[in-house]
């Protein structure tokens, strides 16, 4: 009998969206799971992969996405049940508890040894492709919830979908239809268009599978009605009822059928029939027949698209699933002003604001009178200005419409040192990153003001209207400040990572208390120039997030900010330095990800050079390894034929490995062969004029169209 999921979790964690892969037929090491909070990766010779997850907080959470074929599975959890405590663990599927148990075996050892190994098995667990599998637990005493692995072995596949029929009169009537008696109909009743311009009715699928759908209706000879069919709001068929060989009456002679073959349908999908009658043919529907053809294929995965500012508008480039891109100009104006350099009059962020799985846009602008003069002897003056936030929702296939506009008055004190020669408009106010900062389920955003020494969280009220939630102090640098959001201390709330401009030249981590109030906990100054090109990733695989960045000026190079799990820097950075700015050479951009699929993080750069040490430019891949003095970059491969600034790592061609984009005689893709070896593609999008430039033009990824919208 399949496992029933009904028990409630004892934990109350914030929303958690793991990305780690959990496959069937292969072991998933616990240390490869996405960590929600409270776990860290530890090394030990006894677990199967030489590492395990260990609790470092009162409550711990980790998980991943099931990528196998839907079916019934035996799930085995490997762990170490030590004798010096009684830990507690839950195993959940899509938030429902499948099993909960205590680690209370007294026969083991008080430390991690082979004698403490245990395995907990859940039999006949129903899993579907895309399900979220999660572990939650609480340590106890000297038993810190040491978790080794997950194994999934398929017991039986899900039952093949069964054929079935649905009488039209049982459909949900949305408009215009009425149930009318008819002796020629299969159930002696039909749905008939009775009023209004359009009649609509729907049916919600109760099972999944591939079906041939037949719509049975009466096609009379005294009119030409029209009907269209949609699934989840997307039209899949439209046809005229234009038969001439039947009858002018709804009888056996005028019966007709429309076949829609090979529909992949899932439980919960909504099929809608809509149309209008004509003349003496008032759109009479008899029944729907679903003929099962097999199990449904796994959900298609939407490929990552990209977006950027190009001149006067935001542009998205839609991916065809194989790394081919088609530009779509969104019509969202950038309000660019051109001076001696291109300067942005707006901040843009992209996130899914309405929960439909597609990225939308947030545009932030500000306006106010000229900056005031600061009287001699004063060190600050009060100042107010207006911030306008616009939300552009994605209607599908990258078509955007303005859905909400909100304004907020920002009042601050302008500091005398900052007002000397500001880089406007960004030094007055700049928005950086969007995410759910306060854990209420909607998207907020991070911004700052150099002139006002302030960092802001703008809160979403749930409808797309934004206002100041919290203001925190931070003295920044002029021109070139950047920000990111990430959970740096494992408490489930997004914290702020600020890279400050000239004079400060630092990276700051500011921890969020859950209300958007930020506290500076640690900082680092890599070089005598502003850092940029920040990437947040677990570089040392210790279970928390680190930052890789590039710095210029004296001591310029590629640096890391290594986190100790609280947001504070734990140890000296791994780096590739280049000495002072007179040494010759360049840094360029760098990217970090698991490029060769071995579970570790590598770094790639194609613009770094150092003339003093005979290091010419070219594509280099570095392993990140533990050296004698800490974490180090160790060069593994070099290709002198590929030169440029790399950015935006993602799987663009859908083959399961991480590719890169690169500025190299245009914007191109570095196609990964799965082992960390790259080939250079032809240009994927034309050159563009950007108003956002750090070490590379700002190009971001997102999902702007679904996998079944390849219409180009």
TrEMBL record:
TM segment ranges: none
Stored Gene3D superfamilies: Galactose-binding domain-like (2.60.120.260), Integrin alpha, N-terminal (2.130.10.130)
Alphabetical UniProt keywords: Plasmid, Signal
Family matches, as InterPro entries: FG-GAP, Integrin_alpha_N
Pfam families registered for this protein in UniProt: FG-GAP_3 (PF13517)
Protein name: VCBS repeat-containing protein
UniProt source species: Alloyangia sp. H15
